[in-house]
Fold this protein.
Amino acid sequence: MPFNSLPYLGFLIVAVGVYWLLPPRFRGIFVLLASLAFYASWDVVFVWLPLMVAAVVYVSGRQIQSDVSGAKKWMWTGIVLVLAPLILFKYRSFVVVNLILLAKAMGAQPFSLVAAIAFPVGISFYTFEAIAYLVDVRQRRVTMPKFIDLCLFFMFWPNILSGPIVRARELTPQLNFRKPFEPRFFFEGFDRVIWGLVQKNVIANMLGIWVDRSFSPRAAGSPSTIDGWFLAIAFGLQIYFDFAAYTNMAIGAARLLGVTLPENFRQPYHAATPAEFWSRWHMTLSRWIRDYLFFPLNAKWQGAPVPLYLSLVGVMALVGLWHGAGWNYVLWGCLHGMYLVAYLVFESFKTEHAFLGSRPAAMIWRVLTLVGVSAAWVVFRATTLSKAGAVLTSMFYRFAGGRAFGGEFYVFTFAVVLLCAAEPAILQRLTEMEEEAGADGLSLFRVVGRPIAYLVGLLLFLLFDENRTQFIYSQF
Amino acid sequence: MLPDHAAIYDAAREAASQIACRPIKEGQRLVTSGLIDSLSVLKLISLLEKKLSVSIPPETLQPEDFDDVDLIVETIERVAEPAS
């Protein structure tokens, strides 16, 4: 049941309706059952896996709390146990294929192992939530809830497939479902769900048609310079609108139940520096990496430059590997790590040279950030490194003329660029319109504008439903 | 022995202002507002250690433990040890 499908919308409306009709004491168990049914609709074979992760966290977490001297040992035991299924299901084929290649390169006897096995959806996301949970219990930031509440935390359907990656302390207190109904839950929820449907079906999927065709292994030769740039930009926009669509629908579904999930995006292509890009893109993953990997590592080394630079590239390579078991993802992560290092080095010279702190220098960094992010997307998207090399060569080195697409590709991509550019102003205006109407007041925007926007959004979703594809991040 | 609460508060406010390169008001968010990043938090820890002659073990900390002046004071009182 993908979020952008009529069966899911039916499920959502029925589940939200039943939820608010039930007495509060039954809502938790109802959401757990609905979440199990939702996950089973994706992956009936692996529905036990998030429950097993919950059981591991429950047992380890209780031991961490009760056995103070052995808390560290229990935390690491729990982390190893929850990481094991992720490595087994997600990285097994990557490890096996690379071992075989290494053995061949070293002239050893060829061997074969079963490499490919099924991949449970959402595993990367709930595994990270589980690790954070165990660390937070060890750091006494949270206490262990009842087992059923822990199952609900890991199974909660709005965010089980692809995040946002939530912390125990922001979601667990909300899962008692005691909030009384407020009309704004519906407005805020449906705003996000319907905008998500439009972002996915109209924008991301349309761009995907051109991008998929050009990056497919069957696509011939190198693109022209202009096509290379347009493809890099189009994929950057596709993956943003695809993941932002999913996130909006996840946040919207939770909001319909009165639950607030953390935001994942803040207009990432408006970032002025590589570091700022990561505070605007997939914010809950960035936060996880910062709190549970980058900060503890560098606190140990007290921020010394060489370990800091090495750890930045290493941590970003891991971020790449988290996205998928492939060298292109590792390379994408390393590129971002190098951008971050380059910016840190630049910053260290800022106090000595006045020009480096000037507006033109800031403008140059803004452009470099956009160019660097776009180039890295090519590596991320390309099915082979040679394909990535061909596109990047056309973009930066061997300039060639010609256009392989119809005018609609360039016009559509440019229109989406303009939409992205105008996004902060649009959001600002919408917020002002909400504030003008007051907390419970009626306004033209609420009575007429919003229903019309919902109707147009749903019509667009249905009109473009034939382009339906999987959300990109559901593969991660 | 750790310095008293008022001394820790003054040092925290001064160190936060120095790292953020602007005066920090009471309750002003540092990390969640994006005013300082995780690297600046490391610098802040090191500055606080010098100012207060304490040792702040970082293993059990997260950047958001330093999100405002009151939190910084609370964190220091919770985890800091007098420098040996």
